[in-house]
Amino acid sequence: MAAAAGVAALGTTLALAPGASAATTLGASAAQTGRYFGAAVAANKLSDATYVGILNREFTMVTPENEMKWDATEPTQGQFTYANADRIVNHARANGMRVRGHALAWHSQQPGWAQNLSGTGLRSAMVNHVTQVATYYRGKIYAWDVVNEAFADGGTGARRDSNLQRTGNDWIEAAFRAARAADPTAKLCYNDYNTDGQNAKSNAVYAMVQDFKARGVPIDCVGFQSHFNSASPVPADYQANLQRFANLGVDVQITELDIEGSGSAQADNYGRVVRACLAVSRCTGITVWGIRDTDSWRASGNPLLFDGSGNKKPAYTATLDALNSGGPTTPPTTTPPTTTPPTATPPTTTPPPSTPPPGGSALEGGGEGPQGRGRQAPSVPLTVVKSGRAPAITKLEPAAPDVAAGHAETENACGADVRPEHAPADRGEAGTHLGVARSARSAEGIPAIHGGGGSQNGQLGAGASTTFGFQGTGVGPSATPTCSAS
Ligand code: 9MR
Q: Could you name the active-site residues (predicted)?
C-alpha cells in the first residue's frame, strides 16, 4: 500500500510563553485558545479607514452582514451577483481573516421572485440557490449558516411558518445536503436567535440536531446569535445550553453577538458571554454583529465594543480580559469536515495501463499552503496528489507522533475530498469524504494523542485522483504533522 506525507510547521507566533505579556487584540487573544474572534462586515464600509483599521487589527473572522443573503446574491432567478460579497471575502482573505457565510436559506431577505414561489418550484429554487452559492465560494468559507431562523418564537417548539416551511418539513435537511455536496470543506451550521438558553425554541433545535446526527444529515455546528438587551438578557444557563449542543457532537459558535447597554453592566455581560464560550471546548469562536456602535443594526442601543468614533469601550476591555484569562490551554477539540486545499491541482496525466506504479508509490506530490498571519490560528493546507492506476485509498490518518515534545497543545485533521475522476474542481462536483481528525493536548508538556475517528471515511477507487491535506490549530514552537494514506 502506498504512503506519502505532507509536512507542515505550525505557526510559532501563537505561543504565550510563561511570563509573556497578554495578547492585545481580540483576534490574537482568541487564537491563543484556538478560537477566532469575528465581526459582521458591510461592504459599503470597506472604504472607511477607521472601520477598516479596527477590522484588520482586531478580528480574525468576517461575516458579510447582508451581502451573501438570497436577495443580494440572486436578485433575478438564475442570475447570481457576487460583487459585494466578493469585496468582503477578498478583503478578509487578503488580510488573513476567514469567512463565515451567512446565510443560504432563510425566510427573510428573499428576492421578490422567490417570495412569489411555492411548492416544488420554491423547493428546487432554494436547493439551486444553496448549490450555486456554496459552489461559487467553495473552499473559501470556514462555516456556512446553511439555514437561518427556521423555528418559531414562543413556547410551541414549532417550525416557523414560512414559504420554505410550506414546501415540506424536510426543507432544512435538503438545504444541508445540498450545501455539503457543493462545498465539502465548509462547516455547516444551523443559526438562530432566542435559542441562547434552554427554552422551547432551543429544545426544538436541539431535537432537530439530534435527529440529523442520528440519521446522518450533514450538520457540523449550531450558531447562537446572542442578541441581548434588558428584555432579552444573557441567560443564566447560557454556558450549559452551549454545552448540551456541543455534547451532541457539533461545534457551537456565537454568531451575532451584541449586548445593549453601557459601562460596567455591558462590560460584565460581554465578559460572561466570552467566559461561557471558553468554558465549552467545542465553542470555536465568537462573532460580534458589527464593529462600532454606529455600525449596528440597532445603533440606538450602543451594543458593540467600539464607540462611534472607533474608541474601545469598557465592553472591549472586558472582552479582551476574558479572552486572555482563557489562556493558551483550552483549545477546542473539534472534528471538522474534511479540508481540501482550494488550490489543489489534480493530475492531468495518467500513466498508461501498461505501467502501473509498483506497489508502494501511488501517492506523489506535495506542497505547502498559505500560513496566514501570526495572530491567526494557522491553517496549513498541504496537497499530495494521488495519480496513476493506484490501489484504492480507504483510509487517511495523521501519522503519529505528530506533536513535538514540549507542545502545549495541537489539533489536527487530515482530509480529502474525493471527486469523480476528471471532475473539474471549480465546478464543485461532490464526492466522498475521506477524513480523520486527531486532537492532542498536553497539560504537563507531554503530548497525549487520541486516535481519530473514521466516521467520515469513504473510499477512493483505483485510478481515481484526489488531494489531501493537513489542517492544524495549535500553540507551540514547531511541529511536523503528517498525513498518510493507505
Ligand atoms: O444586520 C442586518 C441588517 O443590516 C439587515 O437590515 C437585517 C435584515 O433582516 O438583517 C440584519 O442581520 C440579521 C441577521 O442577518 C440574522 N439575524 C438577525 C440579524 C439582525 O437583525
A: 256
Catalytic residue among 256, 260, 397, 409: 256
pLDDT tier at 55 (50, 70, 90 boundaries)?
A: very high
Atom of ligand 1 nearest to the CA of 225: 17
Give the alpha-carbon dihedral of 41, 138, 436, 220, to 10 degrees: 50
| pLDDT tens track for 389-423 | 233 343 344 433 333 333 323 333 444 433 222 22
Q: Which of 108, 297, 304 is the pocket-test mutation for ligand 1 (most atoms within 8 Å of CB)?
A: 297
Please answer whether residues 347 and 1 qualify as being in contact, where contact means their C-beta atoms are separated by less than 8 angstroms.
no
| Residue 370, domain member (yes or no) | no
Closest CA to 41 of 58, 27, 61: 61
Q: Is 256 a known active-site residue?
A: yes
Atom of ligand 1 nearest to the CA of 289: 1
- Condensed to tens digits (0 to 9), the pLDDT of residues 187-232 reads 999 999 999 999 999 999 999 999 999 999 999 999 999 999 999 9
The x, y and z cell numbers of residue 445, run together, are: 508538556
Least confident of 176-190, 342-356, 421-435: 421-435
Structural domain for 138, as ranges: 26-326
- The secondary element (H helix, E strand) that includes residue 207 is helix 200-215
Residue 293 lies in a domain: yes
The Å distance, Cα 198 to ligand 1 centre, comes to: 23
Residue bearing the CA closest to ligand 1, atom 20: 297
Into how many domains does the chain fold?
Answer: 1
CA–centroid distance, 101 to ligand 1, in Å, is: 14
Residues with CB under 6 A from ligand 1: 65-66, 108-109, 148, 193, 225, 256, 297
Nearest to 250 by CA among 175, 178, 169, 337: 337
> Is the pTM higher than 0.85?
no
Model pLDDT, residue 207? 98
C-alpha to C-alpha distance for 486 and 340, rounded to whole angstroms: 18
Q: What is the pLDDT of residue 439?
A: 34
Which residue puts its alpha carbon closest to atom 14 of ligand 1? 65
Residue 136, domain member (yes or no) = yes
Which tops the pLDDT comparison, 454 or 253?
253
CATH number of the domain to which 212 belongs: 3.20.20.80
